[in-house]
Amino acid sequence: MELPAHKTKIVCTIGPASRSEAVLEQLMLMGMNVARLNFAHGTLEGHRQDIRRIRAVAEKLQRHCMIMSDLPGPKIRIGRLLEEPLLLEREGKVVLTAKDVAGSADRIPVEYKQLPASVQQGDLIYLNDGFIQLEVERVSGEDVFCRTIIGGPLLSHKGLNLPGVKIFADAVSAADLAFVDFALQEGVDAFGVSFVETAEDILKVKRFALEKGQSVYVVAKIERAEAIDNFAEILSAADAIMIARGDMGVQIPLQDVPAVQKKLIHQANLLGRPVITATQMLVSMTENIRPTRAEVSDVANAVLDGTDAVMLSEETAIGRYPVETVAMIGKIALSAEREKQAIQALADLPAHFRNAVNEGKVDVEDVVTLNAVESADALNVRFILTRTQSRAAPCLISRFRPNCWILTHGGDKQTNNFLALSYGVHPVSLDGTTDGLVDQTIRQLLTDGVIEKDQSVIWVEDELPGDSLETVSVKIIKT
User: Residue 334: enclosing H or E segment and its boundaries?
Assistant: First the structure.
């Protein structure tokens, strides 16, 4: 038995670029473990043929390859455009309409009849995963008149998002259940449920399958703010989760997505639920033979976070290099797996120095600065104060990444400018203070409004210039 080189699983979306038996065979040989069929695109007959080709190739190679049918759910999309790409200019005017018309520069059809009832003046509408942003100016009948805030090229059937707006549609519709019925007859292994909001959305699919005499595995796609709020109950009902970062990055602030990803993976790991991390993992390889460095880091960080699988979408569905993309994502996963334990150990700097203390291999300044940080965390103080003529004390405190700020003074201009580089360090200028006068320093910080009365702070003092540290005191001070 020959085992794969890497343990992280690879999900590939099957489309025009990858549906031939020849390409499917190469994808499996390169590491594809799951074939994803996106039922938002294509025909039932096309999906039937894809399923049969995937099964035939897996049988030929004697491989296990899961087939996951991704249900469309209430994905709002624009309709067909007469000419594409349609370029929306910044500060231009455009009308989104619920009418069934061919799209033009002036009027774009939307496949969501309730759009006029869902939005009002001032609401933001995002197109194409948020790359295009519109602001609603007024609503009239079936038309929504908008101003383009951020423009760009738009293709037919691209997605439309309404963050913070109630969508008048169920996560699992009658059309989705019809897809489930079809996929059950074709022997699909699992179902991805899009735009999940509650556990009931998962259970609806499972109950439907049971009525058909089958039990199914359901993957909950986490892409709405409601799903994040209800994640515990969804996680209990689902067999696996997919962190679908495309729509998630529009539904919640984009800058929050990495932290949410890490939290969701951790919670799923605790319950032993498999996790798929998805969306734009190596999207530049849709057109290019090599990914960007940022994409490589994104894939590696997902592995380090604890994801079970990484997913490719357009990269393998319509990309120019589907096989090369799978090979690349496998290489990245393997490298991250090899270094995972070492990286995780390196990240816990306090534990490293505690172990060094036990082994008698630690310097005085390490003990003192670690003690200052742990005291600050224990007391939940907002500031560690350092008075230094060098950069040593604040830098040694900063390496532990405390939750509080490190305020430092006493250095010359060059030292203070350099300290602006260090995490959490904020150089301050205090007039009239002299060496060792803690009370005078505290008084000026109170006067300047930096700290408040009856607030605890940690004081660390470094008296000697240069790079060597001689810490004479670590004090907990109540102002």
Answer: helix 322-347
Q: Does 221 qualify as catalytic in the annotation?
A: yes
* CATH architecture for segment(s) 350-478: 3-Layer(aba) Sandwich (3.40)
3-state secondary structure of 323: helix
**Is the pTM here over 0.90, yes or no?**
no
Dump pLDDT digits (tens) for 163-176: 877 777 788 999 99
End-to-end CA distance of the chain: 68
Residue 36 is among the residues annotated as catalytic for this protein: yes
Superfamily per CATH, domain 86-161 = PK beta-barrel domain-like (2.40.33.10)
- Which residue of the set 277, 279, 307, 433 is catalytic? 279
> Of the listed 53, 204, 221, 387, which one is catalytic?
221
* Block residue for tokens 């059809």: 109
| Residue 48 appears among annotated catalytic residues | no
Q: Domain 9-73+171-341, CATH 3.20.20.60 — does that match?
A: yes
Catalytic residue status for 77:
yes
What one-character-per-residue DSSP string does 163-214 give? Answer: TTS--SS-SS-HHHHHHHHHHHHTT--EEEETT--SHHHHHHHHHHHHHTT-
Q: Which of 8, 9, 19, 36 is catalytic?
A: 36
Of 55-64, 213-222, 322-331, 457-466, least confident by mean pLDDT is 457-466
Catalytic, out of 48, 77, 93, 382: 77
Structural tokens at position 417: 């400018």
